[in-house]
């Protein structure tokens, strides 16, 4: 056994325990009884203590110093393990356990506060989570930017300054497109009630159409849709609204993008650092291209319209063209996950700026609601009407996921680049999408990107897939062309 072999035996056990931790989180969001919240927080803290001890074990340093990489895969594994070891060694064990305990508690408190429209009930917990995350960011940054230190957990190799420059280039053209659409006649929308069990049945069909393997996954309901797991156990959740079947269908397709990425990784990487997505930005590129460029394409809407007519009968939409316009309707709204393609990134940029201010101490938790509402009014032109449509709408901050939000927009940028390359590489794609078959697109994405997992750094993963450097231009060009045609601009 070489030092590298010893290291990987140890690492596979750590990865397996990490999957168990993820399963506890899935259970908490789906089927855990509400009275178990306090005990679950203690369970999560105990397991995080075990994981933190393994991730900072002195033997890791010895193995890393002695290990040699015989090939590209071994070199990538060493890179990931070294990065994790150096990062975790800077975080005290008691802080790691406190974060696990508090964020587990906070998610239940957030859900209740959201249901009750009660910001005050959430604020004490939010203050504690923010304080712990600031402490963690400062410990990891070692004198650098604490927000960037947290951002690197989700998007290694980037910085808030780089993202701010990219987002600054996106904002003016997104706002100009949105404002032009506001001057155009409003698009059609669905009206009426749609049976929620039928929504779930159709969402299952959509999941299968986009390559989700239910022998290695499952679909459940949750307040906030998410994907969890990797390898041979990758689960997703969705939600239903009797007045809005698109919420269920496109949330499902979105999460299937995440899930098929994990399911598509080469099995030789299972329970190693390479056995998961390269970053959250790359992950989001998969969910967004599935949901939008493919799932909301005119071709796929042709199939979806037919299936909705089969299931729901006459639901007030006369033809496929009108249905396509309804599926891509630009509309006023408060909820990020329900936002149209044109405005979605504006929701993300709001959160990006606010969470930077929270982590850098420029904004206090008790001032967050006012700051959110002021920024939303400035960006969207109408006022937040209730907390569940404002600062309480997302689970992320209760879960301590500071640095996560900007990866949504970065993922959209990557999706724009991948979509352009996909269209060039796969002729006749629309004919298959019109039959409800996204297999050709999924196969291309799996071969070019998904199967490699974390083999390459995030940006290099996209470069390898598209054969060039990513930029925001393909996304902006796609949005301007699509919505210009839809709204006669």
Automatic annotation (TrEMBL):
Keyword Zinc-finger: no
Enzyme Commission numbers on file: 3.4.17.19
Protein name: Metal-dependent carboxypeptidase
Family (UniProt): Belongs to the peptidase M32 family.
Role description: Broad specificity carboxypetidase that releases amino acids sequentially from the C-terminus, including neutral, aromatic, polar and basic residues.
Reaction catalysed by this enzyme: Release of a C-terminal amino acid with broad specificity, except for -Pro
Organism: Rubellimicrobium aerolatum
Coiled coil residues, start to end: none
Keywords associated with the record: Carboxypeptidase, Hydrolase, Metal-binding, Metalloprotease, Protease
Pfam families membership: Peptidase_M32 (PF02074)
Signal peptide annotation: none
Spans through the membrane: none
GO MF entries: carboxypeptidase activity
Entry-linked InterPro entries: Peptidase_M32_Taq (IPR001333)
Keyword Hydrolase attributed: yes
């Amino acid at each position: 056994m070489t030092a590298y072999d010893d290291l990987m035996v140890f690492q596979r056990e750590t990865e397996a325990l990490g999957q168990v931790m993820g399963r506890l989180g899935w259970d908490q969001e789906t089927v855990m009884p509400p009275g178990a919240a306090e005990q679950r927080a203690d369970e999560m803290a105990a397991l995080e203590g075990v994981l933190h001890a393994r991730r900072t074990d002195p033997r890791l340093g010895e193995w890393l110093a002695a290990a040699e990489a015989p090939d590209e895969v071994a070199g990538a594994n060493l890179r990931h393990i070294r990065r994790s070891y150096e990062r975790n060694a800077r975080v005290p064990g008691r802080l790691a356990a406190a974060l696990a305990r508090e964020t587990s508690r906070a998610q239940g408190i957030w859900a209740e506060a959201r249901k009750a429209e009660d910001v005050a009930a959430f604020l004490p917990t939010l203050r504690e989570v923010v304080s712990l995350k600031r402490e963690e960011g400062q410990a990891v940054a070692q004198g650098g930017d604490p927000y960037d230190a947290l951002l690197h957990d989700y998007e290694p190799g980037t910085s808030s300054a780089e993202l701010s420059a990219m987002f600054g280039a996106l904002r003016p053209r997104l706002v100009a497109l949105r404002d032009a659409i506001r001057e155009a006649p409003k698009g059609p929308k669905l009206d009426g009630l749609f049976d929620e069990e039928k929504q779930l049945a159709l969402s299952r069909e959509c999941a299968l159409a986009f390559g989700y393997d239910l022998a290695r996954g499952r679909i459940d309901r949750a307040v906030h849709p998410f994907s969890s797991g990797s390898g041979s156990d990758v689960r997703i959740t969705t939600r239903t609204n009797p007045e809005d079947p698109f919420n269920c269908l496109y949330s499902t397709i979105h999460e299937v993008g995440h899930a098929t990425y994990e399911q598509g990784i080469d099995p030789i990487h299972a329970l190693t650092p390479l056995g998961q997505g390269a970053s959250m930005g790359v992950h989001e590129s998969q969910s967004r291209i599935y949901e939008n460029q493919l799932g909301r394409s005119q071709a796929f809407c042709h199939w979806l319209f037919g299936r909705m007519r089969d299931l729901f009968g006459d639901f007030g939409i006369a033809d496929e063209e009108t249905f396509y316009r309804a599926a891509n309707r630009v509309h006023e709204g408060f909820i990020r996950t329900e936002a149209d393609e044109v405005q979605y990134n504006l929701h993300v940029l709001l959160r990006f700026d606010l969470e930077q201010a929270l982590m850098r101490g420029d904004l206090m938790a008790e001032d967050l609601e006012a700051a959110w509402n002021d920024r939303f009014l400035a960006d969207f032109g109408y006022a937040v009407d209730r907390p569940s449509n404002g600062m309480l709408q997302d689970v992320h901050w209760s879960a301590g996921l500071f640095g996560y939000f900007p990866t949504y927009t970065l993922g959209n940028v990557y999706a724009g680049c991948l979509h352009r390359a996909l269209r060039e590489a796969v002729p006749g794609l629309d004919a298959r999408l019109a039959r409800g078959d996204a297999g050709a697109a999924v196969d291309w994405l799996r071969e070019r990107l998904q199967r490699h997992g974390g083999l390459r750094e995030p940006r290099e993963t996209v470069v390898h897939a598209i054969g060039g450097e990513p930029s925001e231009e393909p996304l902006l060009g796609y949005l301007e062309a699509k919505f210009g045609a839809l709204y006669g601009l």
